[in-house]
Structures are given as structure tokens and as C-alpha cells.
Amino acid sequence: MFKHCLTTALLAAALVTGCNGDDNPAPAASGPTAGLTLATLPAGWKYEGWAVINGTPVSTGTFTSASAADDSAPFSGATAGPPFPGEDFLQNAPSGLTFPTELQGTAAVISIEPSPDDSTAPFTLKPLTAMVPAGAADHVAYPMSNGAAVFPTGTATISGTTLTLAFTGLEPLLNGYYYEGWAIISSSPVSTGHFNVNSSGQLITHPGGVVIPNGDFTGIANLASATAIVITIEPINDPDPLPAATHILAGDVSGATASLTVGHAAALGNTFATAAGTYILATPTDGTGTPVNERSGVWFLNP
Q: Where residue 288 falls among pLDDT bands split at 50, 70, 90?
């Protein structure tokens, strides 16, 4: 809950002011504001918030706008939360965890997730992260750090009808999902082959899981005419011969090579180097009364 002196109607004001010394509601200012500065995502992607509790990532929900509630609240209480991404961890704890929980000393994360998603764990794209201080107070804004510098990158090299791919930071896809390369030839996408990566970062066949020697994809007609290379995430048993909307890396071909980045216009179209954020610890969904569990929720807002 926010503070013991508040009624449900004053929850939003509590995000701004809390209570005054004589146990009466303090007057509200302009109200809380969005705590995340994030680029608009293209089709095929969503943001997701996380609290890493005892080493276990627990989702706070997916969202596309930092100025609106996220899409779920499975662990929150009965009272409506503020209109921003976040979650109270009060009930329905996953196996191995106990709710309510103490979020001091945990971690808060914002990830960029493929949609549909291959896994219930955070994806490799994490533009914002934060270690919650061991002595963190509730209702105090704490900053998040930018993580875009370690986003995946890749190179593509063309030699005749062979495309050689190499990546840094690309994670294995799970549950039948796979990567697919595409050469843009005469303005049309031409598949260069399906693949995944193993835990060592080597490219492997999909299906099969056999290491692809040198990351070479061979026998691609008209490859010398390619103007760009795009890497997509494809869903399990995908019947569509065209690229999925989830473009993760792309680059223009110049001199038979292409540098592949998330920032290319044919991928996510943003480097996320300017992503910024703050979070607070608070439990607005457990109603009013005795102030307990105040550090059992994380909300991505400015109070």
C-alpha cells in the first residue's frame, strides 16, 4: 500500500507526496509521470518489465507505452494500480518464491521482447537495468542504467553465392523459434537460410542443431546483387514464406560486406542509446490501512 493515512481515492496523490507529519493526506502536486524514456517499437516487438527476485526473473508485464498500464497484473492486489508499467508482488508467487517479497537488493530490468515470444525469460535486448539498493526506500525514484552498448551485432560477407554470417551477443532461441537470414535483392527478400545459435555462440542448423561451418550459407542465387541483409526471428512451424515482422538485425551491403545492427531502419530502427528510466518501490494495489509490504512492488514512474 502507499501509506496508512490514505484512502483509495488518494493513491495517485501518494505517489507524489505521501503523508504529512500530522497523519493527514498531504496535497497532491501534478501527479506521477512516466518513468521511462523509450523509443516506439516497430511491429513484432514489445517492452517487458522484470524484477529479478532471488535470481528468478519475474515479469511485471509487457507494454508498448510508458504512459499506460502494462497488459497484466497477476501478482498484484485488488486495488487498481497507477497507469504506468509495474507490478506488486503480493500473491500467486511462482514456484520457489514467496509473496509478499522484499525487493531491496534485487534487480529491475526493461527488456525488448519478440512478439510472439520464444521464452518466458528476458530476451537479450535489455535497454535498461538497475540494481535495487539494499537500503532502498519506498516511494523514492531510483535511476536505471542504459544497456544498449552490449546489444547484439553481426557481420555479413558475400562471396559469389555464399553468405557468411557472424554475430556477437545473439542468444539461442527456444521452443522451436529460429533465426532466418534474408538478402534484399531487387527490393525483394530472398531467404538465405534458417539457423539458431548454441550456448557457445556458434551458428547451428534449424532444425538439426548441427554447427554450420564458418557460418556459411551457400547456393544463394544473385547474391552479388544484394543491397541489404536482414535477420528475423521466425515462429515455430512458420508457414509464411515472407519475413516475420520481428526484424532483429540489418545492414546495408557495401563492398560485399554489411554491418548488422538493431539500429538499422530495417531492424528495430533505433540504437536505444538514449533510453533512460526511473523506478520506485511501492505497493499501490494492496489498498489502505497498516503500511506493510511497501517494498514488495516495482513501478516504472516518476513520483
A: low
Distances (CA, A) of 236 to 70, 123, 170, 192, 194: 26, 17, 18, 18, 12
d(CA 248, CA 185): 19
Q: pTM for this one?
A: 0.89
pLDDT digit string (tens) for 85-122? Answer: 999 999 999 999 999 999 999 999 999 999 999 999 99
Residue with cell 546483387: 225
